[in-house]
Amino acid sequence: MSQQNPLTLVTPIKPERLAELYKVLSNMKYRLEKGEHELFEKNNNIHYLRWLVIDDENSVFFNGTKKNPKLVFSSNFDGEVLAHIADLSSDMEHQLLDEIYSCCIDYPEPDNCNAKTRAAFLKKSMIKVSAFYKGSPGRSLKQIREEQDLRMYLRKKLDTENWSGLTAQQIHRQLKKDVRENAAFSFLNKKYSMPKINWFKFALLVIVLLALLPIIIIWILIVEFAYERKDVHYTKTRSDLDADKIKILEEYEDLTSGEDLSKEEQAIDGVLVKDKVINYQNQFSQLVEMKEGKVRLITFKAMMLFAKTLIPIKFVEGELMGIPTIHFARWVLFDDNKRVLFFSNFDGSWQQYLGDFIDQSGWGLTGIFSNTKVFPKTRFLLTGGAYDEEHFLAWSRDSELPTQIWYSAYPSLSIKNINNNTQIRVLFSKNLNAKKAKKLFELI
Amino acid sequence: MQTIELKDVQGYIFRAYGNMKYSRFTLLKISNPEAAKKWINSICNQITNATIVAKDQLPETCLNIAFAPNGLSALGLSQENINTFPPPFKEGMTTIHRTSLLGDIDSSSPENWLWGGLKNAPVQLVLLVFGKDKATCLAYYNLLKAEFESHGLEEQRNLDGLTLKDNKEHFGFRDGIAQPIIKGSGRIGPEHNTVHPGEFVLGYKNNYKVYPDSPTIDKPQGNMNLLPPSPLKTGKKDLGKNGSYFIIRQMQQDVEGFWNFMNDRTRNEDGSINEAESAKLASKMVGRWPSGAPLSKFPDKDPGGTSDENDFLYAKDDPKGLKCPFGSHLRRMNPRDSFETDTPKKSLLLSNRHRLIRRARLYGDPIIGTPTNNKPKGDVGLYFNCFSADISRQFEFLQYTWSNYPKIKQLYSDPDPIIGVVENPKEEEEQQFTLQGDPINKTEKNLQRFITIKGGAYFFFPSITTIRYICSL
Questions:
Q1: Staple partner for B285: which of A92, A130, A183, B417, CB 3.0–4.6 Å?
Q2: Whether residue A262 has pLDDT greater than 70
Q3: Contact present, A261 and A321 (Cβ < 8 Å)
Q4: How far is the alpha carbon of B110 from chain A, nearest alpha carbon, in Å?
Q5: Which domain covers residue B87, as residue numbers?
Q6: B439 close to A (CB below 8 A)
Q7: CA nearest A281 in B: which residue?
Q8: CB contact A159 to B (< 8 Å)
Q9: CA dist A246 → A259, A269, A357, A401, B245 (Å)
Q10: Percent residues over pLDDT 70 in chain B
């Protein structure tokens, strides 16, 4: 089974090279929009990646910050992180890497720039994730694509041949024969089973939590009375948000905007004809500051530990706390535990995504984000917070950042599609009774 | 329960004006704000409110008014105060972002619109004039119109709407059956179809049990005493209370294309039209039969007559979409108790957070399409008019997430077959309609787009008090 892993890099930018870096990024965005993503396809193991600039004092998102600008990179890939770094640093992608990271502090000088020194630089910039969620655990990019091919093949067979009068079992047997003769589906010889909820570990976790309940209750009371009630809370609504910020964020949601491309660049590459299409996937990048003090940090870390433990036990079937649209998500505590980055890759629109959060998992988000500055007011971590729809939506938008580069290896597959495809594959490979065979064809 | 101040709410939100067979929505341009305000103030007592009227006392005419951001600005509402409106209203329907979200691309692009588009004069305000018949409506309109010129108002465009027999739309289906019931509106209905007033009227709590975002007065102007305090923003006056957002979309219908498609996909072996199968395919895509009868209750054929049947759910009657396909227009626009993979109870909770009050009016040749009668004279279509308190969570969500987005339930490439199909899809992009079946699902490939958006705008539909306030600026 393949292991999907996250990599997060935070690298300080040479302030004098910031403008140049933006240009490199916008150029790459332009190329991606035109469909040139061979670079990220080469190793056939990158699901998603993104770059974004933070702490730029001239950006409306960081108005006059005193911090130095930094470049954040995030990827979701198959295999070991060191192998991924080696891939990125190898001959294959070094040009891109050099172009981008030569704008960053401490990147190897040209005369000393090779796979080894690049990898050493990247390793130094690595930040550990606090918690990580994957919507299709265990599936490599290759497997996701193969299973989509299988589903497409089966659908086409069903659409183009005459199956009338046959039972589901008979159709299944016939299709199996066809597939067996097709070399493209030799991957079916490898057995695969869907990840399952580990109810035993889940029960253990519940028992541990029950045992800790008195401490948890006391802790929540301390947080509520000694901290939460004295904190500054978020009171804006969506209509209060900075229109310029919203406009920029919306542009980055429209993958095909290309609006950030400078005039000069357009003259070189020709004007990007906007291919008006509707997107079915999107990204969310968020940066928030931790509230001061140990109590908040401990609460946050406890929530992260809880998430880290719970996710691989419980949320392995394509839904995170009931949200069925997330491919990958991560929380990263960085900057001396002072700030938190949250990244996700999701299906559908921002409104749908955030709506899902409120509808399905308000308590989880409240538990985590009420430890960060200026969050909507909560009561005992139970009500308010993320359940306070209007304020929460505004807060989410307000703490969101533009993502200069975003790449998805399968922009037309939803996480539901991916998991459905695996279910089809698993069922299809088996010998099925009448009931199971029916179930299989409901999925196709 | 929250009591709604029905007398202050403009009537069209709660009342469909069923007896108003003809309407004229006139887009007005303000050339003299002072005079215009005087006149609008003078018609305030004619504006129809939301109080319930006994059947035998229904009026012969109705009147309502709504404002676009540009109109509010023309009448003197300061930019600071306009900025307190939510982003979709402020930005309008025609930004690149909304165009992509709403699917207004290709022929439906705002560049080609007849009004409200990128090449049209900005929309300012719309006067909604109704009459029990065409003559009554136009007589009332002309009475009002006589005052336009002397009050600095210019007629920009008239959107004339009508209703057809049995409330059918041009494709031939009875429309407007499922409307949510609002708690406290004086109307009652099944609990699963009932929502909190804040879903449609600002100043009341919504289905999340919080107050919806509502415009306020940030910079004092006008007669502030008229306005109530904002429940959401301490110390501010609430401009939105008892108001709503009114959305108009002019949707041209290709009746001939629609029925040609259905006929072609269902022809008899000898090539002749199979009327029953053609109508059945169309009904599968719509989710109701032409009579309005829901497929989940009448899966095999149209019981005929007219049906107002709305007290039905999916989870028990049709969990696998074998009767009413998952991808049908109706099931997408209101999944009721069968939302994604959620339990029926949770499904209802979630579905009811994305409802609209629809007020469609038709235009053009009064044709009611069938497999064999589908050639209208000239352009026909409908003004898809609707109300919501949160444009983003309700109208835009429905149009994007439930209509244009092809991946609801376990579907892969199924946009809403009636309103979500892309005219010129990307190469290799499949657009299909899946008919859940036993033992295998069937698909209708290469769907076609049968509607073209020809105009549209977001309007603020203020309370009568707020209209008076605007006139005090």
A1: B417
A2: no
A3: no
A4: 12
A5: 6-249+456-471
A6: yes
A7: B405
A8: yes
A9: 14, 28, 20, 10, 21
A10: 100
Contact B95 A250 (CB under 8 A): yes
Q: Please count the structural domains in chain B.
A: 1
* Residue B97 to residue A416, Cβ atoms within 8 A: no
Please name the residues between 273 and 332 in chain B that touch chain A, using a CB distance below 8 Å: 320
Chain B interface includes A63 (CB < 8 A): no
Nearest by CB to A351, which of B96, B103, B392?
A: B392
State which residue of chain B sits closest to A438, comparing Cα positions: B439
Which sign, positive or negative, has the C-alpha torsion B75, B81, B86, B92? positive
By residue count, chain A amounts to: 444
d(CA B339, CA B322): 16
Put simply, the answer to whether B396 touches A351 (Cβ < 8 Å) is yes
Contacts of B203 (CB under 8 A, 6+ apart): B211, B214, B228, B231, B238, B240, B241, B242, B243
DSSP code of A375? Answer: P
Chain A interface includes B338 (CB < 8 A): no
Nearest CA-CA distance, residue B79 and chain A, Å: 13
What ipTM describes this predicted complex? 0.91
**A94-101 vs A81-89: helix crossing angle, rounded to 10:** 90
Which structure tokens are listed for B55? 């059947």
Q: Is there a contact between B95 and A167 if contact means CB atoms under 8 Å apart?
A: no
Taking only the tens place, the pLDDT of each residue in B276-312 is 999 999 999 999 999 999 999 999 999 988 888 888 8
Cβ neighbours for A136, distance < 8 A, ≥ 6 positions apart: A4, A144, A318, A327, A415, A418, A419, A422
How high is the mean pLDDT of chain A? 88
Listed range (A169-173, A190-194, A336-340, B260-264) with the worst mean pLDDT: A190-194
8 Å CB contact of B441 and A442: yes
Report residue A255's pLDDT band, with 50, 70 and 90 as the boundaries.
Answer: low
The rounded distance, in Å, linking the Cα atoms of A20 and B280 is 60
Confidence category of residue A93, pLDDT binned at 50, 70, 90: low
B396 CB near a chain A CB, below 8 Å?
yes
Asked if the Cβ–Cβ distance from A390 to B213 is below 8 Å, we say yes
| DSSP states along A243-268 | HHHHHHHHHHHSTT--TTS-HHHHHH
Distance of CA A178 to the CA centre of its chain: 37
- Substitution target in A144, A247, A442 with the highest count of B β-carbons within 10 Å is A442
Confirm or reject contact between A290 and chain B (CB < 8 A). Answer: no
Among A237, A280, A351, the residue with its CB nearest the CB of B393 is A351
Answer whether residue A272 shows pLDDT above 60. no
pLDDT higher than threshold 80 for residue B397 = yes
Q: Which residue in the set A243, A278, A359 is minimally distant from B100, CB to CB?
A: A278
Asked, for residue B396, whether it belongs to a domain, the answer is: no
Residue A162's Cβ-count burial label (10 Å; 0-12, 13-18, 19+) is exposed
Q: Is B266 left (phi over 0), alpha (psi -120 to 50) or beta?
A: alpha
Chain A residue closest in CA terms to B215: A239
Yes or no, beta carbons of A278 and B404 under 8 Å apart: yes
Query: What is the mean predicted confidence (pLDDT) over A415-433?
Result: 95
- Judged by CB atoms closer than 8 Å, whether chains meet at A280 and B83 is answered as no
Asked whether the predicted pLDDT for residue B458 surpasses 90, the reply is yes
If DSSP codes are grouped into helix, strand and coil, which group holds residue B155?
strand
Given CB atoms, is A421 within the 8 Å cutoff of chain B? no
User: In degrees rounded to 5, what are phi and psi of residue A128?
Assistant: -75, 140
What is the percent of chain B with per-residue pLDDT over 90, rounded to a whole number? Answer: 82
Q: Give the C-alpha distances (Å, rounded to integers) separating A321 from A15, A125, B49.
A: 41, 31, 44
Structure confidence at residue A276 (pLDDT)? 56
Encode B459-471: b = buried (16+ Cβ within 10 Å), e = exposed: bbbbbbbbbbbbb
Average pLDDT, chain B: 94
